[in-house]
Design brief:
Length: 504
């Protein structure tokens, strides 16, 4: 077995290729086609009382080897965890033991043997036969384990994201995040399916992008001879389905936004949008609260550790109008401020605002700086200005500058965005025309005018409530992760530098 400390990577790979030839000379195929598994590590440990002295077959990756002359102990890692194996030359035969001495950490093997408990009390498989399933030639990062704790693990964050396969092998606790991600998605689907929502699929490649304020990725279709866009949201297509006669629809969608990357943003992300006819944003507020609590119940938790805070998920979520929060945290009522007065306030508060920033952008800067970080426990922020909400209905209170919209904030981050959907076709056209003017003035994130969508609304859309929830951020909340990269198996990464040190 290789001494990695004193060998270069090329030396190690060369030595392991020689071992493959030696294994073949033993008449053994180092890459067989299949292996019958009867049990997994976790089930063996949990069912030890009934499996003791029974023969099992297990397969996994060698993660530790301790040779002792004519016997050896080893650990193998399967999809459910680790378990110890004991190999004795007499029990498995000289040929198999010779094979074992040609193995390395990282190889896949199959073991058939009896379930026992060692003198130290560790549940172990006493091997009766050994099968090589796949010979490793590139070494794993060196990991030492003592008292169940890994030392010198694969800790380089950037390399962990780039080589997620190594991260999952060497840091098996990472698997739990993605197992829980799958459980969260299952819980979300179950929540909506039980309420008679129809899961649908809408185009990823779109002739026009819309439904959010964001810059798109563009691509080109050779046959159509036209530019297409990767969707930034599926909102306008889902509304078309409400117009078409479906009362309840949802989609778990991959969206793409050509923007910066940080701990909360990845250019490719997952969101769920759901729409229900004949309800408003108040109904959807209740539904979102139930959704989050349903996921918590599926994971059997009542709180989540997120952004350094204990989030109480099973208590009623707070509900506060946006301008009430501005008055609470800034000490003044800004609901009737025009853009000049708002710009002056931002300057007084020490914010650097670009000369071309519009009313909505300045308001967003103020909210993001002085209010959002303080919204720790689940809080619905309601009743937004019309200027930054082109797809929401004017508020029923009669204030023409306010719309029926809410966003959900938890731990200082946004988790959901929702409207009483605008279904007045004349008002909707005027709003999107206003957005088009903002684009002409240089706002690259302003929404485009989608004539087909406007014609669909003119056909008639019933009163509708709609919501978008970021799935990746939801997983961050429930798994206690600080970065979106930690809940994406393969996050977007900047190109590696020309010099990339070997990870051993």
């Amino acid at each position: 077995m290789d001494d990695q400390k004193h060998s270069t990577l090329d030396d190690i790979i060369s030595q392991r290729k020689e071992k493959i030839e030696n294994i073949r000379q033993l008449g053994i195929n180092p890459y067989p086609y299949a292996y019958n598994i009867s049990h997994y590590s976790k089930s063996i440990i949990q069912q030890f009382d009934s499996l003791e002295n029974e023969t099992v077959q297990i397969a996994g990756r060698l993660m530790a080897i301790r040779l002792m002359g004519k016997a050896a102990f080893a650990n193998i890692l399967d999809s459910q965890g680790k378990i110890q194996i004991y190999l004795n030359k007499t029990a498995i035969g000289e040929k198999n033991y010779e094979l074992f001495r040609l193995l390395d950490i990282g190889d896949f093997i199959g073991i058939s043997g009896k379930v026992i408990k060692t003198r130290t009390g560790e549940i172990t498989i006493q091997a009766e036969s050994l099968t090589l399933l796949s010979k490793n030639i590139r070494p794993l990062p060196i990991v030492k384990e003592k008292d169940g704790v890994a030392h010198d693990a694969f800790t380089d964050k950037e390399q962990r994201y780039r080589k997620r396969y190594l991260d999952l092998i060497v840091n098996p606790q990472v698997r739990d995040v993605f197992i829980n991600r799958s459980k969260i998605l299952q819980a979300i689907r179950r929540f909506f399916d039980m309420r008679d929502f129809l899961e649908v699929e809408t185009p990823v490649l779109q002739p026009l992008y819309g439904g959010a304020n964001a810059r798109p990725f563009t691509t080109y279709h050779n046959t159509l001879d036209r530019t297409l866009y990767l969707r930034i949201a599926d909102e306008l297509y889902l509304k078309r389905l409400i117009i078409g006669g479906f009362d309840k629809v949802y989609e778990i969608a991959k969206n793409f936004r050509n923007e910066g990357m940080d701990r909360n943003h990845n250019p490719e992300f997952t969101a769920i949008e759901f729409y229900q006819a004949y309800v408003d944003y108040n109904y959807m507020m209740d539904l979102v609260e139930k959704l989050f609590q349903s996921v918590a119940q599926a994971l059997e938790v009542e709180t989540a550790e997120f952004s350094g805070h204990t989030i109480k998920l099973m208590e009623p979520f707070a509900r506060k109008p946006m301008f009430t929060l501005f008055e609470e945290y800034l000490g003044e009522n800004i609901s009737d401020y025009d853009i000049d007065k708002l710009r002056l306030l931002a300057k007084e508060k020490g914010l650097e605002i670009g000369a071309k920033a519009n009313y909505g952008q300045i308001l967003d800067e103020l909210f993001g700086e002085f209010i959002e970080p303080k919204l720790i426990q689940p809080t619905f922020v309601t009743d937004y200005p019309k200027a930054i909400s082109p797809l929401a209905k004017t508020h029923r209170s009669g204030n023409p500058q306010i719309v029926e919209r809410f966003e959900l904030f938890i731990g200082g981050s946004e988790f959901a965005n929702a409207f009483s959907e605008l279904n007045d076709p004349v008002d909707q056209r005027e709003r999107l025309e206003a957005q088009a003017k903002l684009r002409d003035l240089g706002d690259e994130e302003a929404q485009v005018l989608d004539e087909d969508f406007l014609q669909a609304v003119e056909i008639g859309m019933p009163p509708t409530g709609g919501v978008g929830v970021g799935i990746d951020r939801l997983v961050m909340l429930f798994t206690g992760q600080a970065s979106i990269k930690d809940v994406l198996l393969f996050p977007a990464m900047r190109p590696e530098s020309a010099h990339n040190p070997e990870q051993q």
